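Limitations
The structure tokens in this dataset are predictions for the assembled complex, not deposited experimental models. Users should treat interface geometry with appropriate caution, especially where small molecules or nucleic acid strands are included. An illustrative entry is reproduced here so readers can see what is and is not provided.
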Amino acid sequence: MYDFKGKVALVTGAARKRGIGHATAIKFAKSGADVVVNGRHHPSEAFPAEEKAEGWKGLDSVVEEIESYGVQGLAVTADISERQQVEDMVQKALGEFGRIDYLVANAGILVRAPFLETTEEIWHRTLATNLNGVYYCCQAVLPHMVARGGGGAIVNVSSRAGKMGDANVSAYCASKFAINGLTQVLGIEFGPHNIRVNSVCPGRVSTDMMYAEKVWKTSQEKGIDIKEAAMLVHDDAIPLTPLRRPAFAEEIASLIVFLCSDEASFITGQCINVDGGRLTAH
Amino acid sequence: MYDFKGKVALITGAARKRGTGHATALRLAKCGADVAVNGRYRPPEKFPEEEKAEGWKGLESVVEEIESCGVRGLAITADITDRKQVEEMVAQVTDRFGHIDILVANAGFYVQQPFLETGEEQWHRHIATNLTGVFHCGQTVARHMVERKRGVIVNVASISGKVGRPHVGLYAVPTRRSSDLTQVMAIELGPYNIRVNAICPGRFLTDMSDYARATSMADEKGISVTEAAHIIHADAVQATPLGRLGHPEDAASLIAFLCSDEASFITGQAINVDGGRLTAH
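Predicted assembly:
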């Protein structure tokens, strides 16, 4: 689709099979980029049923898939809520490839709790991953992009919850709003360096963070395909969505990769919804 | 890049050489679409100097370029503020190509005027072209798309409608409302597998924004047209993080993306392509 030959992408939170990170990494690989993929350490006993059933190996599986497109992949395990681990990750990427052209700050967690039950632990853990992680990754990559010259692009993965509230997701919502604010500031500050920074705000996506295991189990039990099963599991969001279905991770990846490409060379500082029309034109 | 083979696009406001309509027509043609292009009637004596100098023939020139990409083109002169002309235009496209997959409602009109000096006729003209035209084209084409249960519509609006500035009320008001209309269209047409989005360009270098003035200044001062444009539009360039004006191709790229399957989950949006000038409104 695009021509990313010679370019290098770094995608965080890419270890889950049905995730935006994985889909984005593959999309970059298909267009010729070398791709560095990151995830936290996750013991394989704790993998969801679908991943176990399909012999999924986390980041190693993603790297295999990347390399099947004739480009290079590199797996880096790191907890992006820890600044030192982020800096080490970026150094590994630069050590292997010499450059980073695209950063996709995608790693995120969602913990549901009514506000009065949102403990210190939930609050800090959510902000540490979703917000501080973006801050650390951008701060680690931007000096390199600026020094190298020649531009670059960053896409932060926010959410519909970064534009409008929902019950029981206070920490998540606060973190996603914050990512959008940070994105705007970075767009302004780094525009003069031809480094574009945008965020994407997905609506309901059928990923591991959002019931993918339940979708898979439903498809197994009822003998239907994943798309049909997703329609059953996400029945709460569907009537509210003009396109009457949830997204799949690839549809979010498409917007992310577009925003990194030269096709988007006049777009920066934006927080773009990819939500089937659920939250229109915010 | 994208694959629009077998798809038919209709683009309004496509007759000017340095315009979003022309750039978009070419972009979709390069991706394999058959393209119908529309513009108002304009006598050739009134063409800007650059167009005259290069033998520009308006819609005919655009069709020649489209067909040089190996696809089919069709020129339709029509005033999109006139409902009957819009219906005849759409009928011509479906008669010729059988269907319409993509509508780019791009025709627009822009004059700066202080609020207290804005005349009745100017007010109505801006509303008619920039808003009612979007309604006429959108409704007529959407009725056809609903029968096929597929389609994509992109309305060309502006960042002018998102944040107030002096003297652009004539343009800001209808373009803002066309983004609102975009939302409603998206909500109602989504269940029919029709996606509707708007793009909001910032300050671009096009015929509608003083391209002619930039070429005259460039000749006078012996500088490039881009340099001249940066002088004329110094206020905008200064306020833009990417430090430049937009080119019609920047808008065409976003429109092409929104028309493609790469944007399959994007609808109801009004996306800024403005170099960061108006962040995230």
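Some entries come with short summary sentences. For this one: Chain A has one domain: 8-206+248-274.
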